[in-house]
## 1
Amino acid sequence: MTVSATKKYKVIGTRPIRHDGADKVTGRAIYGGDVKMTGLVHGRILRSPHAHARVKSIDTSAAEAFPGVYAVVTGADFPDLQDKIANLGEGSVNLADLSANLLARDKVLYKGHAVAAVAARDVHTAEEAVKLIRVQYEPLPSTTWVLDAMKDDAPLLHEDLRTDSMGEKGEEPTNVATHLHFETGDVEQGFAEADVVIEREYKTASVHQGYIEPHVSTVLWNQDGHVSVWTSTQGSFTCRQQTAELLQIPVSQVTVTPCEIGGGFGGKISVYLEPVAALLSRKCGRPVQMTMNRDEVFEGTGPTPGSFVRVKIGATKDGRFTAGEAWLAYDAGAYPGGMIGPGCMCVFSCYDFANAKVDGYDVCLNKPKTQAYRAPGATQAAFACESVVDELAEKLGIDPVELRLINAAKEGTRRVDGPVYPRVGFIEVLEAVKASEHFNTPLEGPNRGRGIAAGFWFNIGLKSSVAGNVNSDGTVELIEGSTDIGGSRTSIAMQLAETLGITAEEVHPKVVDTDSVGYTDVTGGSRVTFATGMAAYECGLDIIAQMKQRAALLWECDASTVEHDEGVYSSNGQSMNFKELAGKLHETGGPIVARGAVSPEGSTNTFGAHIVDVEVDPETGKTTILRYTTVLDAGKAIHPSYVEGQMQGGAVQGIGWTLNEEYFFNDSGEMQNASFLDYRMPTCLDVPMIDCIIVEVPNPDHPYGVRGVGETPIVPPPAAIAAAIYRATNCRMRELPISPPRLWKAMSEK
């Protein structure tokens, strides 16, 4: 279902078959594991058995002497790097920390931390050789909970780390890397004006993105010094930058070819294997392929932050929010640079607070370095804020949707961290919730409840480049650098087709390597259909301008007199469509090659809201999702099926995060459930068909009104489900996951 009052288009808003569909369903698409090369050898990594330990020595001699082994590397093989912050699009990283995360030097900081790597004739030989590497460790105390890591007597991960509090460095060593503070208005006065004040604390566990394809990379460091990489990545240029800087070689000496990607969700932005495989390749003179096992993915790559959030909101009797205060502590994992910034930006982002204060802390502890996961940091913050809003609605006797409408962010609302919203669609989203069949259908039966929650993600712009080549048969080759995770080849091709007045099928999109297209930022931040689509639009305008010149040559007129309308060129009674004019390119000067390059600033600001019905088994605490509806302002849905897919996918991941998923650590800091058998993700048996309502309030900063849609859908589920569980059980759950044992315990105590 789509709620829209926007302009009608010929291509945009339709549902063509995706361009890469045939290759995907027939198994011909080339994923990272499909790369085969002459002389290919295989690499494996030795990982730490300790959550925290000093590395006293590493003896690789037995592994190097093992038959079939071609190379062994350790952290000592990497160049020594000074602190330098690299922007990865959705998050940033200190390159010195990244290097130490790839292969540990003086200390290991989490169980699964990579220590050394082997390249051998086959993966089995490599696995045997890795076991021969002898590492002498000095175990140290560890911690895996964010509040424990903030204590004065907590084991220190980095002796040289000092808290950066709004630009000022602390004097004492600490695990708290960053303290952020945002404030607007007079918070104390705002709470004094409130008739009702609710303050609550919330905890969330670390969860993993859960992509099905593990990390896999193939690297050849050629004799001429050029490094070629074939990898599963969300950003080929980001991968190129990290690889080049970690190896201290120019970016022009690294070519990254992005393979098809079997899921990423933010977890395939940072590099883990590529630079290691490059060092092995340089040593052995052969291409090296490295693939992670599933336990390595869980223990050695970046999950979400575990979090502790305290939220306090005051309101008047008529439901107007007078003040909000939030205190957030997110774990960054082993190295600084977590998701606390977005968490602070998003915690109150759905509402118009004249008075608000937010403090956030980025905390290091003995877990893998956290990475982005679909609206990184926002889900934890929304779980807290939206749960308090639900309690306020009950306390005030106001419908939860009405309370949100009273306080909804709108054009002109200033977020606590500074930005002022342009035209946004949160009010329209809430009105769509009220008008939905789900909202207006009574929920009957015992042990059942309905919950509603909202969510926001700002989305990013960043840089994108495309090129377009016009063929003589009237088709266009579209060259782009955005790796395709969710159908973006088609959504970008559709925007070019709409601009040119041709069909989506007449545009042939291709994702190419870093030598074959201009710089393009990461596929993340819900930016691709927005920003790369904008580049495709600019490319289309370039093609149109050149086609007008060709028509003018044929008709012997001035190009300024040639008009273009939906693929037809005309002047003084003469006309040709796109295909006809393309057929005469060789008569009028040869090929047409066009380009588009953009770097849009600002955010596209996407709001959503979810409705969920649940039933709770009072004997086991198991929660069953009975019905689920997700509402989202897409600005303009380029391909509605893909938008619905993003809405449904985000909701399912949010359901898993809420009910079952968690990193479970023992007292020694060892993850106890590093497999899909024990890490409980939802399957098709756990969720109903998810209904989608697309709202379209055009983004004024995009030619077709596009907003990002990939991340907001994961933000509302925890708070919505928690509200539904409360109405089914009378238990307010404030810790994720709301697993059957935890909920059963709460019901029993109630």
## 2
Amino acid sequence: MTAREPPDELRALRAEVVQFRQLCNNVPVAIAYYERNGTICRYANHGYAAMFGHDEESVLGRTVTEIIGEEAARVIQPEVDRVISERVSVGYERRLPGGSGGVRSIEVHLLPHLGLTDEAIGAFVLISDITRHRRAEAALRESEERLAKFMHASAEGIVFHKGGFITDANPPLLALVGYPLDQLLGRSTLDFVAPPERARVAEVIAAGDELAYDSALLHADGSTVPVEFIVRTMYHQGERLRMTIVRDRRDRVAAEARIQYLAHHDVLTGLPNRAAFIERATLLLNRAAERGQALALLFIDLDHFKRVNDSLGHPAGDTLLQTVAERIVGTLREADLVARFGGDEFVLLLAGTTSAAAVAEVAGKLLATIGAPLAVAQAAISVTPSIGVAMFPDHGDCAAELIKHADTAMYQAKARGRAGYQFFHPAMAELARAELAMESRLAQAVREQEFVLHYQPQLRLADGALIGVEALVRWNHPQDGFIGPDHFIPVAEARRLILPIGQWVLGTALRQAVSWHASGLAAVPMAVNLSALQFQAPGFVDSIERALQEAGASGTMLELELTERMLMDNLDEVRAVLARLRALGVRIAIDDFGTGYTSLKHLKSLPLDRLKIDRSFVEDLPHDAGSAAIANAIIQMGRGLKLQVVAEGVETEAQRAHLLAQGCDAQQGLLDCGPLPADAFEAWQSSRARAGA
């Protein structure tokens, strides 16, 4: 019998079932239905079946435990019980093992299937794979955590704001403004910007620029904090935010201020330096020129300051300079300008209309104030200043010219005995130019060895025997002929050219002494004058020993002549130097004795051999009572100290007779023989030998 065609209703139902299956298999949700009795799966779409390793046919008729596993079934059982007993929908999440060892996150919804009696006869299961969402959320959380860690780990301030209103800030930013976070959130960023900077910051916010620029914050205590803003735009959770990194510039600003200060001030005294002085002095001079005012510029140099550094050390010297600076400032008016030019040099500009008499009064006060004793390194010391004065506009119309002329006047003050002041006058400039020309020519003379030695005998008064020879340097100028030491030695000493000249004199004199000793012509000590620079130079004794060795001379062939002033600086050190020289056999004489300040205590403690009476006490003998008294006292003192006494500048028989009668040992002067070139001295001495002298 033939099969009957299904009725239309059945065909329509089947079509709906097919459509339902197609729909269920194409939606992105896993769907299943479990009946209550035995929790048997009666339907599952492709997604659900595949999720647990089945297809739509093999999954049917299996229990929930068989499909999802015993452990998972035990976990979800309480939710299933709620759906059946309470007839409510339940949702929960759980994680499933995924492919390649991964894990999937699923969202499960259980819906009760109610029968005619409102009793739950089954449950629908809807499962959505939310792995991607959970991973995105995790990534977002990680990003936020990283951002939070970055904000808290950063040493720089960070603030986020939206439309100019603060949404977040890190602890360093809170420290910069002095507020807790809850007092920042929601407030305008401009509330925390220093008022002068707000317009600029508002422009940047409005323009949305990404840039870095300097600005300033307003601290809770009302102070201003210099900062640098580095502004960037970023998107967070779909929102456009502005992130600003805030760098504290206080250390940088302080460092820049320190650099600026050091560029214009002397570190030791805090006074303006040379550059700052010239800059400010130029303004004051221009103003004075407009008003027709006179100003005075004073150049101060401390006398013998090097002695303090050498004897007490540089810390003591620094203390002295600081004290001098304080005394200068304390002597002047507030409107006056003071600077330290370096070393022991200070320069002053007296403000306002200034007369020469008023300047002289100020200079006198400075001399007294600066020269007052002070305690340094457990010693009472004092230094005197030499001051040069140049007047504006008479002596110059700019700072540089006034400084140059005041410096020239200061050197004139030193030349006149130090511890005084001198006003500049044009003749000084001529003298300075002449000295500069001589300095240049003298340097050339050193290079080309244009010097010669003349020799003057020293004779015993009792019998006229030769007991010594003094070597005296002359400059054999190519155009001007022989120039005496009085004309070029001061320039040589001022420019330190005396060191190479002195070394040449020493070597030449020693070689001549060796020759005369070998020939028997003049087997007596060769006397050589020393400058203070030579005597105080490092390694001085070593240089003497080296010169003796190079000339092949013994120490007994050499006598060194020092001035009293050279013996006054640091007695212990002088005594040690002289002892080393005596150990070499070198004799020591004090030249020009009576013109200095050597005390008897100094004399008796020093290893000396001779005193040379200065010619100023000899020239008026025997008629001048004062000169006679001084010369006689020196002779008696020398005899008492067992020192040989030599009179300089003996030119008459009367002088010789007086000196001999007083017990003077020897004479040196034109009466017997003036300074002679080596060949002339040899002829003079040979003639004496033939005459039996």
